[in-house]
Amino acid sequence: MSRVFTRLACILIVFAAATSMVFAQNITISGTVTDNLTRETLPGVSVTVKGMSGGTSTNESGQFTLSTPAAVPFTIVVSYLGYRTVEQVVTSSSAALLISMEAQSILGQEVVIAASRTPEKILESPVSIERVGLSAIKETASPSFYDALTNLKGVELSAQSLTFKSVNTRGFNANGNTRFNQYVDGMDNQAPALNFAVGNIIGMSELDVDNVELLPGASSALYGAGGINGTMLLTSKSPYTSQGVSFQLKTGLNHLNDPNQKARPFQEAGVRFAKAWNKFAVKTTVSLLTADDWQATNYTNFDRNSRTQKAGSRSTDPNYDGINVYGDEVSVNMRNVANNVLTATSAGIAAASGGLIPNINAVITASLPVTATPTQIGTFLGGFPAALRPAIQNAIPFNIGLRAGLIPDQSVSRTGYMEKDLVDYDARSFKTSNSLHYKLSNTVEAIAQVNWGAGTSVYTGSDRYSLRNFSIGQYKLELKGQDFMLRGYTTQERSGDSYISSILGVYINETSKSNSTWFPQYVGNYVGARAAGAPDMQAHGLARSAADVGRYEVGSPQFNAAKEKIMNSTISSGAGAKFDDNSNLWHYEGMYNFTNLLKDKIELQVGASYRVYDLNSGGTIFDDLNREIDINEYGGFVQMGKKLGDIFKLTLAGRYDKSMNFEGRFTPRVTGVLTVAPNNNIRASFQTGYRNPTTQNQYIDLAVLGGATRLIGGLPESLSKYSLYTNKPYTDVSYRAFLASASAGAPNPALLQTYTFDPKGVRPESVKAYELGYKGLLGANVLIDAYGYYNQYKDFITAVDVYQNVSNVFTRFGVPVNAAGEVTAYGAALGMDYMIGKFNLNGNVSYNEIGDIPATYVNDFNTPTIRYNLGLASREVVKNVGFNASYRWQDSFYWTSSFASGDVPAFGTVDAQVNLKIPSVKSVIKIGASDLLNKYYTTSYGNPLMGGMYYVGFTFNQ
To answer: Taking the C-alpha atoms of 53, 54, 60 and 64 in order, what is their torsion angle to the nearest 10 degrees?
Structure first.
């Protein structure tokens, strides 16, 4: 694969050499840019030559110098967010220019690229799009710009920890959202082994973010597989137009009034440097965040089989399984324990006696009544050789307990450990981005870029995963021009010291005392307590206390030693909880825009891509312990747009994609924009989208939930490996019905119903998305954006739990499958921005609802029906002082996942910040808070409660 990437580099170099030009003598101009009211100089103003790419920006003193090959007279374009763009004709380079800019409302004037992969005004976008510009990023009240995304219309975040957050739109939210794409400077930001972005842990430093564009809904026609529920593009600043040194320091507190721990500080520091020397430019950014993470403390009793909550606690339910407690997933029926002890004892006695005592259990039954006294038992044991007496004596309580009805048909679980004792909550996020840029001409630029991040966080999937010292690197070579783009990059994922929390808890228990010892001790002591007259719950308590003798106490040397050993032993070793993932992604793509060649008579774009997933988990995630797994994908698209008169634009697009494991897919898109009045447009679209089953949907082979469930891929080869086609498993519902009949004392195997897997295995999921929207200016100060959508999903990828009987032992499998029938979802959203003098009043409300679902489909819509945001801001309420405040509320809803299911309560939060600009030192001081009122809430069930974060930040921008 590295050879392929090397070839790409050679192609780029040859292409660059072929397209380089010899320039005429450049003209150099200089000048100063000021605010026309305050007369203060404006740093960071963009200055470009009209009709040409490249340019410069003003320094901290508002001054600029620009060298250009353009011949006089030519026009320069001076632009700055929040100010009216100035165009000025330059006739000579002899005099310094003095340019005055006027502040203005910029509602609806932003330019976006994501909607059509070509620049267009946001008012004219053919599909719904949200944009966060540079000023909004600087003025966000949240501790980070990424956290502030939830204030956008129709956008929600699922927060699994302080730094791991997943973005979603239009329903089917998930902890790791495989239906949403995230791109950073054109690179798919997904982790190859997960198929979704890990929030902004290895994303972009806030100092380097130029803008964020977010497309709610399907986008496969332009961006390929994935993005079935949305696509987000993060674009960094150019080193040509944003030069100089910037740094940011931020410190604050969280965990105030947290019942789990005392208030703790968090710190974040970042620095950015960019410099351009005519054609050549360099940029580097570094940032580091450290904090104490939020702790997951949901100890609700949970039935993993039915995925429902149940009554009881550790002290009242012998089979307690806490959601954020690990090690208690191991559960065994007490009667089965007794029978297994008797079976094993009989076999041992038969072997030790040379076959003279073939069935000691039958001998005990025939010789001792259920009311046998100690004297009777002693006399009975005296009739056997001394070497056999201990084993026979151990079996007697189990025999009598079963015959006397003292052993209930009750499952009991091991005593678990709380998440806070197993998971690393030392949250860290380090990321750096470094790039070299070279302008081969005014319109052609070559880029070599390295993004690398490492950190420690917690992620929720089918388990709680402690992502410890993991890292992801992205390495890109790109050549882009006014009309084309050629890009190749690779994503290198390294799991570091990451591990599964439940497996860790299970193995610590097993190290302190094996299950084969603990459970018989529990049942034996229970029988003894009941025989002595103890009531049921008291007997359970005595039995647990006896069986837990020798259990490693949290913080003890034995606990710490066992934890360290298991954490650092791989899953594939059979004695560890550690991942060993070194998966990679290789991606190559190109695009050409023929619009200029066609003299703007028609807009025409074509593009193609090729991708390889290179899975390397050493058997700790995928079925790759003894083989290599690569997944090859390719695709291409074409898009044509035509403006019909002055009021209507029609765009047609289509894309074909093929993955090696699935049939090819064609995804068309049709959009139309009707201008009903200046700056007022109605848009309508029909889009299709699809996503391939993830790498885990295809090849996972992993025990989770303490080993209680094995997750396997849905490809035929995975199903065949475990004989699920031939030894058909039983449905989850029928297996639970069978267990209920057994508990009632009349086991009924006829209740078991087999599950038949599709011979073709799991296949891609697709959606047809219909949208009607309006965006327009009502006067100069009011911007309205509204839309309604309706989605039809086919072959919706979900999962089933089945139970396979092998030699009377039932094994639970979690397998991805396609839901039979159609799944539908619909909704609407309304947003408004209102400029009132110096103030911006904004708000939005969104509505999402699931429609038709098949009878067998597990509803994981995981989205509140109603959510809304309200905001009030001013960039300068008084001289050099600005503020921003927002209120967010969302309805309660039911959350379903393979880890846990339950109600997520409604909540509302207030975020606010006030900032002071200090022009003399080019700095800003910001004091702010997220969840200002410190009302703890959770965004998804089984994840931690989060409270307020209060901070002070200092930013210097040269």
So the answer is: -80
pLDDT above 90 for 932: yes
* 648-664 pLDDT tens trace: 999 999 999 999 999 99
Query: CA-to-CA distance for 738 and 746, rounded, in angstroms?
Result: 9
d(CA 83, CA 304): 58
Cβ atoms 175, 459 nearer than 8 A = yes
Question: Which DSSP category does 370 fall into?
Answer: T
Q: Which helix (H) or strand (E) holds 527?
A: helix 515-531
Q: How far apart are CA 336 and CA 410, in angstroms?
A: 9
Dihedral of alpha carbons 397, 398, 400, 401, sign: positive
Are the C-beta atoms of residues 215 and 127 closer than 8 Å to each other? Answer: yes
Residue with tokens 């490693």: 552
d(CA 918, CA 176): 41
Q: Output the DSSP codes for 79-128.
A: E-TTB--EEEEE--SSS-EEEEE-B---TT--EE-TTTTS-EEGGG-SS-
b/e 472-486 (16+ beta carbons within 10 angstroms → b): bbbbbbbbbbebbbb
Q: Quick one: tokens of 151?
A: 């204030």
Q: How far is CA 187 from CA 178, 603, 660, in A?
A: 16, 25, 22
567: left (phi over 0), alpha (psi -120 to 50) or beta: alpha
Distance from CA of residue 15 to its chain's centroid?
Answer: 37
> What is this structure's pTM?
0.88
Give 934's pLDDT tier (boundaries 50, 70, 90): very high
Tell me the Cα Rg of the chain: 32
Nearest to 695 by CA among 717, 715, 709, 710: 715
DSSP assignment of 18-33 equals HH--PPPPPEEEEEEE
CA distance 689 to 793: 9
- β-bridge mates for residue 258, sequence order: none
pLDDT on residue 23 = 34
733 versus 289: the higher-pLDDT residue is 289
Please give the Cα distance from 226 to 228 (Å, whole number): 5
8 A C-beta contact, residue 507 and residue 515: no
Q: Specify whether the CB–CB gap between 751 and 727 falls below 8 A.
A: no
Evaluate if residue 647 carries a pLDDT over 60.
Answer: yes
CA-based nearest residue to 936, from 164, 256, 265, 325: 256
